[in-house]
Structures are given as C-alpha cells and as structure tokens.
Amino acid sequence: MTGRDDPDPERLRAAARELVDVALTIQDAAAHATAALTDGALLRALPRAPSAARPAYRALLRATTNGQGLGCAFTGGGRLSTAAGKAGAMLGAESLAVRVLATSLRLRVAAVAVAHPELTGDPMLARLIDAAAADRDLEAVRALRALLKDRGAVRALSQLAPVFGEVLALRALLDENPLNDAAAWLIATGKGFATADPITGMSNRAIAVLDTGEGAARRVELTAAESARLCTRGSLLGFLGNISTLGTTGRALIQSVEGPDGVIRHVLQAPGMRAGRPDGESPQDLLGAFSSAVLASSPYSRALAEAVADYGLPPGAELALVGHSAGGAAIMNLAQDADFCARHTVTHAVAVGSPVDFKRPADPRTWVASVTNQHDIIPTLDGQGAGTCFDLHPDWYVVDYGDATHLFPLCHGIEHYLANLADDLPEAREHIDGRLTPFRGRVVRSQAYLLFDRPPDPEGFPFLTVPTRAVDGPEGSVELPIRCRDGDALTAYFAAHPAVAAGLLEGTGLGPAVRVAGRALVAVHAARNRHTTAGGYGELQVGVVVPGPSRRRSRSPVWPDLLRAADLRRSGSFLVGSAVDATTVRALGPRLWGGETYLTSLDVRLGARSAHVSADLILTLRGRLGPGLPLNDPGLVGYAREAGAVLRSCVRTRGRARLHAAPSLRLAVAPRSAHPLADRLRELGLDGARPLLCLSATTRQALRDAAVPVPPG
Amino acid sequence: MSAEIAAHAEVLRTDARALAACAERLRAIEAELKAGGGAPDWLHASVTAHLAACAVAAADLETAARRLSRYADTATP
What's the domain of life for this entry (chain A) (predicted)? Predict the structure, then answer.
C-alpha cells in the first residue's frame, strides 16, 4: 500500500471510480452470459439441434466459470444462478468483477492513506488492510486480533475509521460468506445504503424493523440551568450548543428566531442516540439510530414530525433542521419526506456526524450541509466514509475533516464537533453560518419535546388514575390521595429494646411488638417523593412493627405478612414519630398518618448498592445495602393512636424493590440533639445500630391517602 | 425461439467487445497513475492480472456468441 512518490488522492479516487465502471461492465457481461445459460429457450430448442446445442452450452459454461476469465460469474437471473453464484463465493471462487472492485477499494484506501499516513505507516493497521485486500482470511483475522489486543477495540476501530467501509467491503467481497456480498457491492459501487452488515450479511433492514412505533412527542420544560444555557441568538454553534445542552436524553428542541429581515423562522434541533440498551420507549436509542440511518422514515423522524406539528408553525413558515448523529439521519428523513415538505418549507438541513450519504431531500431547494470527522465511525455506517470515490451530492456542502483526536466515541461527541467547528474549521463554520443567515437573529421562543416510539400512556396511567378529592391545606387545596409518580424509598428494620417498645405500645391495643431474638422490631422508613400532586417532598417515619390491631391473635407468622401488598396487610408500624420537609405535607400529617409530624430538612439518596439518609437534628443512616433480592414494592402500612381510636394509614406503591438481607448501614442519632424523635431513637437503643435487613425501592409510584380509623374489633 | 438464442448471441458479442474496451481502460488507468507518480506498488500486478482476465473473458464470450449463433441457425425450423 505504499507509493513511490507523493500520490494525488484525487487521481487515485478518479482511478477507483473508473475501476467501478469497469467492474460494472464486467458484471453486466457476466449477467448476460448467465441469462443465456439459464434461458429456457435454449433448452426448448435442444430437440431440434442437439449437436449445436452441446457446444453452445459448453461455451457458456466456460465463459461463466473460467477462473482465467470472468471467474465464477453466475449473477442475476433466477434462483438457480443465484445459488450457483453463492456456491462459487463459498468456494472462494471470485468473479473478475469482484476482483476489479477490490482493486478499486484498495485504491480508495491508498487515497485516504495520503491524508492519514498512520494507516500505512502503522505496521499493525497496514498488516490488517493488506491481509483484507489480499483475501488472506486467516491472516486478516489474526491481524485484527493483534490490533484489538494491542490497542483495545475502541482505539482499533477509531484508527480504522477513515477506511472502515472499504476494509469491511474488501473482506465481504473476498470472503467465503455469500450473504454479505450485496452489501459489499453497494459500498464499493456507491449505489446505495449497505443493505446488510458487511461482516455477517445480516440484513440491516431486518434489524431496523425491530424499531417500531408511530412516533410521538410531548412538551417538556427544561430545567432552569438548561434554559439558561440555550442560545439567545441563532447560529450554527448556538444550535449545536443547544443539542449539547439537551444531551442524549430523548428530547428535541424547536426554536423560533427573528431573522435580520424581521421574519420569524423556526429551527428543529435533534440530538443523537442515547447510550445503553434499546428501551422500547424512546426513539433515540440504538435501534432508533439504526432505523433512522437505514430507513426513509423511522419512529425518531415521525416523533420529530409530531413535535413540529404540535409546535404550530404558521403556513409557509421556513424551517431549518439541525441534527447530530442519529438526529442528523432523522432530520434528513424529514427533509426527504414529501408530505412533510409539502406542509413546511424546509430551507436548510445540517447533519453533523451522521450517516446521511443516501438521503435525498424531497425539495431540491433544501440546502444541505454534512459535517463529519474522518475518525468518527458513525457517519460511515452507510458504507461511505473518507475513502468514498463518489461525489454523491455535488450540490451539498460537505465538510469531511480529520483532526488529532482519533479516539471514538470522543470524536463523535457533539462537544467535540462543537470544538472543531469553533476552533479548527472557521471557514466551514462561517460558510454554514452564512447560509443560515435568515435564522441568525434573536430567539423569540423555545420549546423542548420528549420523544417516544409510540404515544405514551397518560401520566401515571393506570396506577395513579384514581378518584380524587380536594382538602384544605395551608397553601390552598390539596388533592388526596397524594399521587407520586416518581420516588425512592428505604425501609430499614432494626432490633430495639423490647421494654421501650412495649412502653410505647402500652394502651394502644396494638401490642405486642413483633420480636426478633427477644428484641422488638422497629422500622425506620425514609422516602424522597420527587414528583407528587402535592409537590416534591421527603418523609421519615419511625415505628414499632406490630402484627395488627386485631385482638385475636393471628396464627399465621408476621414476617411473610410484612411483604404482602399494603392494602391487604394486617401488620404495620405503630408510628412513634414522623418528619417531613414540606410545610404542606406537614399540615396534612395528622390527616395522612396521625400523630405529630415534625418539619426538618431531609436528604434521601438511594443507589443500587448504597443509601444515605439524613434528617436534620434527628439521624443519619448510611452505608452499603449489599446485594438485594428483587420483589414487588409492598408499600407501607402505619398505625397511630388518636382520640382513643386506632388509625391505619396505607401507602400503595407500584414498582420494583429489593430486599437486602445483609446491609452494612449504620444509624447515628444526631449528637446532643434534643429533638423528640432523636430522643425516641436513643431510648429504643438505635444510636449506632445496624439494620437487620432493608427494603429499597427506586423509581416507584405511590398513592398516599388519608388514614382511616380501624373499626373496633 | 431461435430468434431469442440469436439475441443472446448478439448481446454476448457486444459484451466481448466491451470487455476488450475494459482492457484498454485498465491500461489507461494504470498509465495515468504512473504518469502522475502516484501508482501504488501493487497496482501493476493487479492490473496485469485484470487485463489478462479481460482478454480471456472476451475470448470466452466471443466463442459462446459464435456457438449460440450456430445453434440459433440450426434450430430454425
């Protein structure tokens, strides 16, 4: 792969292009010969001229199988010729067309190597590329393994990125797997999107169709910090900065800007895919990225269209589309959607780090810019990267550049593209900004959208969809039950002084306390209810665990009952104290669970393996939770004694919880605190105590209604 | 029926000529790269192999075309 002199990459690319033409001519000839060989007309004429038929057949067979000529050239035609072609590929008998195409790909690699000398200068990369080009499968596999071992997968792929498509296509053309040949052919000839994975031959479309959904978008508010970071004037860097601010959180943004001519125009801004596993909810996942790139319409692009429809563009209003990564492919899908373009005037489409080579705007007047880093693998997923020898879009503004950062995914990040456009590509930035001049004015409206594969259920449906009633609170009426759509909770069970617990239960009719090895079981429950109909609030409750109010002794053991769903549970905690950090909820305390409720600042942080709870002047409870057994969140039952009656409060929950059998948390009562709840915890002997077991629940939904008196038994 | 066979023969004859032209194009590609001083070392061997294959393929197609023509003539009722 080395040249004698400084080669001209454009000359090499032109030669590669010419070789593609030659290969296509040869392929046509092979198809014609195959068609003649398999034409039934020849067979039907056989009885009339058997002596002439035999030499004709022999000549056709030779033409389509001669390794010195067309090679194994069965192509086109029916199933028989397809099967024969695939059998030939499996036997490693390439056609002349494939060999010429491989030479074209090697010239493309040589052209890229002029700008990326590391491709040929690095012995390990050169070994891999040479082995792929020379059809030495075993050597190619060994070279790839050595490269991965030496550099790691990320660095190896990043370094190969500029010729990723070419190397894959070379391997696919020359290997014995017939299933990937069509994809390799498309990459090599630039005729279309690689329809299959060039390694396995698995159809891209087969994978993309897993991404289903009509797409949906719902308005969401940005946080104050995010809103403050949005650009206040339209510009390329401003719009890309907005995409960076949104992050890969499943959201998109639409802004209206007042152009220099006083006309209000609109800009749709679409981020890339969210890392992690496909979730079946957001179109910004891996499947969404795949389908946006492969298909002309995807849940992501349909969700964006929904957002635009909801935003309410005036008829004829001009719209610019800006997208990064999968967002770039999705906005190009909108640009090539004739119906969308009939509804809206799409004037600009700017795709950054996106595989968009085979997208075509429906309106030829749409100005398209594509910005790609040559070490970024994502834009090459459609098979065309730095090495392409085809000018697929002579009317597009294409910026395909290289920089010193060769590491993927760093070079794919929106922040990296932003930095490159700000510092290293001033001409490109100014050119795109120049074309975006009508959108370079004051931002007059911004609206973020959360995108979905399919319309989401109404919030909280069905669990939180319950009859409600208004009750008076200190700051106006509050709806009961309080409906929490997102919260965390931790319940820690301790062994406490039995005599103190018995004293607390005396006269309540709820005793005796549930015992463990002769000690009383006490529950410390802390919850952070992030989003509720009464606002976000934290709560802390300490209670002695009791079997229930009935005077009749239940024969069944209490422990299994503790994990029963709250609305069916007899056992619960006799509350010896409650604290919250919101005045509204504190005022509702007597109604919700009975007894005195203190107001204090609360910090509840719950992770998968650790917990941190602190209640000002009362306690801290923190440490590792240890492994947990998954189960349904059983909710919470509390009892209180008020005016001679027993009140039962119940928190019904929905979500997963974990039972931690060996937690290593420790409870510390606030030193020297005279808070009544701190005193109570000291009396119970819980200062410095470790819980016997814990129940943690994250991202749970909860319904908390008013406590009800238990009818006398 | 024989007309269909004859049509195949004609197409293959045209293809044989096209492959001969391909050989010329391959020579021109290599020559141009050499002239520009940017021909990779391995290119000459590849192009030489392609040239030879094009020549053989053209001859094979020509032979097939000739025999198909004879078959078409013989099979004519």
Answer: Bacteria
A267 touches A439 (CB < 8 A): yes
Largest CA distance in chain A: 116
Tell me, yes or no, if B61 comes closer than 8 A to chain A by beta carbon.
yes
Q: pLDDT tens across A131-165, in order?
A: 766 556 567 667 777 777 777 766 777 777 777 77
Q: Output Rg (C-alpha) for chain A, integer angstroms.
A: 34
Give the integer Cα–Cα distance in Å for A527 and A349. 47
Beta carbons of A28 and B43 less than 8 Å apart: no
Q: Give the model confidence (pLDDT) of B28-60 as tens digits.
A: 999 988 887 778 888 888 899 999 999 999 999
| Mutation to test the A interface, candidates B2, B8, B30, most A Cβ within 10 Å | B8
| Residues in chain A within 8 Å Cβ distance of B62 | none
Contact A155, A26 (CB under 8 A): no
Chain position carrying tokens 């061997």 = B45
Predicted complex ipTM = 0.96
Which tokens belong to A558? 């209490």
CA distance A11 to chain B (A): 7
Task: Give pTM, 2 decimals.
Answer: 0.63
Region label for A699, one of left (φ > 0), alpha (ψ between -120 and 50) or beta (otherwise): left
Q: With beta carbons under 8 A apart, name residues in chain A contacting B43.
A: 103, 107
Distance from CA of A112 to the nearest CA of B (A): 13
Domains of chain A, each with CATH number or no CATH: 9-202 (no CATH), 217-382+392-452 (3.40.50), 478-709 (2.40.400.10)
What is A160-212 written as a DSSP string? HGGGHHHHHHHHHHHSS-GGGHHHHHHHHHT-S---B-TTT--BHHHHHTTS-
Residue A623 to residue A603: CA distance in whole angstroms: 14
Provide the pLDDT for residue A461. Answer: 85
Side chain identity, residue A142: R
- Contact between A58 and A81 (Cβ < 8 Å): no
Q: How confident is the model at residue A84 (pLDDT cuts 50, 70, 90)?
A: low
Q: Strand A367-373 to strand A345-352: parallel, antiparallel, or no bridges (unpaired)?
A: parallel
Extents of the domains making up chain B: 2-75
